[in-house]
TrEMBL record:
Residues 23-140 form the Co-chaperone DjlA N-terminal domain. InterPro entries: DjlA_N, TerB-like. CDD domains: terB_like_2 (cd07313). This is Uncharacterized conserved protein, tellurite resistance protein B (TerB) family. It holds the Pfam family TerB.
Length: 146
């Protein structure tokens, strides 16, 4: 279903993503982090829906549809390293900081920080060009709003 999209995303020199494609790729990344502890539950799905609805100004129906498409893309996406690097190459730095905050919202959605989620978030942050200190500040911003 997403073969052409994924092929374009992992090309050696990808073009910047169109807005809809960037939304889809970043939503798939949220899903990948949520699934990393093998406990992808309704709390995490609802959190992803709220994140994408707020970030992109979507209705609840549109947010659920985007998450559903993100789940399908995540299942077909290549390994996390290639997938995340492709997103980095296609998305501006300022936007990537917001992505890290959104990822922390998903990790913290169930109130438990699992080692698998922490490890994946550290990897993803670094692959997106976000250092550990910036990621920690993003986590603290998320925690202070909770």
């Amino acid at each position: 279903m997403f073969a052409d999209f994924l092929r374009r995303l992992v090309e050696p020199d990808p073009a910047p993503l169109a807005d809809h494609d960037a939304r889809l790729a970043l939503t798939a990344l949220l899903v990948r982090v949520a699934r990393s502890d093998e406990k992808y539950d309704e709390t995490e799905r609802q959190r992803i829906d709220r994140i994408v609805a707020a970030r992109y100004g979507l209705s609840p129906f549109e947010a659920t549809k985007l998450r559903s498409d993100g789940e399908a893309l995540e299942a077909e996406a290549p390994d996390t390293v290639r997938f995340t690097r492709a997103i980095k190459d296609a998305v501006d730095y300022e936007y990537r900081i917001g992505v890290i905050e959104a990822l922390w919202q998903v990790v913290l959605a169930d109130g438990v920080r699992e080692a698998e989620e922490d490890a994946l978030l550290r990897l993803v942050s670094n692959l997106l060009g976000i250092n550990d200190m910036e990621s920690a500040r993003a986590r603290q911003r998320v925690e202070s709003r909770s």
